[in-house]
Write a structure and sequence with these properties.
There is one protein chain. The chain is an alpha+beta fold and 152 residues long. 16% of the residues lie in helices and 47% in strands. It has two domains: 28-88, SH3 Domains (SH3 type barrels, Roll); 93-151, SH3 type barrels, CATH 2.30.30. It has two helices and 14 strands, in the order H-H-E-E-E-E-E-E-E-E-E-E-E-E-E-E. A five-stranded antiparallel beta sheet has the order 6-5-4-1-7, with no helix packed on it. A five-stranded antiparallel beta sheet has the order 13-12-11-8-14, with no helix packed on it. The longest helix has 21 residues, at 2-22. This is Peptide-binding protein.
């Protein structure tokens, strides 16, 4: 009986640890674009084709590292490579909803101070529960529900 309890306890702890390791929210390695415009390439080389141009602050999830290059993915699951030296750890979000209300506080009970649209890039200023305090490029600050955003 004691052996059975020990086996169950060990199995439960092992499952919990595996869930933590595989949890995307805990395991995401994020960067944002440091340069004013950075090329996302098809491979880890300046000779690789340019797929997109990314603006300063654009958030990306790191999938793999190869030398001085990062394989990254954006909020639409598009993948490519960027030079690590052109990224930083300043947190930003992209609006993934068609419209996101910016509020004066972290909740739907606060007044709307602005709106952001899909693909808008927002600088992260803080977070509280399921809300993120952000700033638009025009200086408007507010709180947006995290479920409407992608980044960190």
């Amino acid at each position: 009986m004691v052996l059975k309890r020990a086996a169950i306890r060990f199995f439960s702890i092992a499952c919990f640890c595996m869930a933590l390791i595989q949890s995307p929210a805990l395991a995401r390695d994020m960067v944002s674009i440091k340069g004013s415009i950075v090329n996302m390439r098809s491979g880890p080389s300046t000779r690789s084709d340019v797929m997109w141009e990314l603006k300063r602050g654009y958030p990306l999830q790191v999938l793999k590292r190869k030398g001085s290059w990062l394989q990254v993915q954006d909020f639409e699951n598009d993948k490519g490579w960027v030079a690590k030296s052109l990224t930083n750890r300043k947190p930003h979000y992209i609006v993934k909803a068609s419209v996101a209300n910016m509020r004066s506080g972290p909740g739907t009970g606060y007044r709307i101070v602005g709106k952001s649209e899909r693909y808008d890039l927002l600088r992260t200023r803080g977070a509280k529960s399921d809300w993120v305090q952000v700033e638009r490029s025009d200086g408007v600050k507010g709180w947006v529900a995290k479920r409407l955003l992608w980044g960190w």
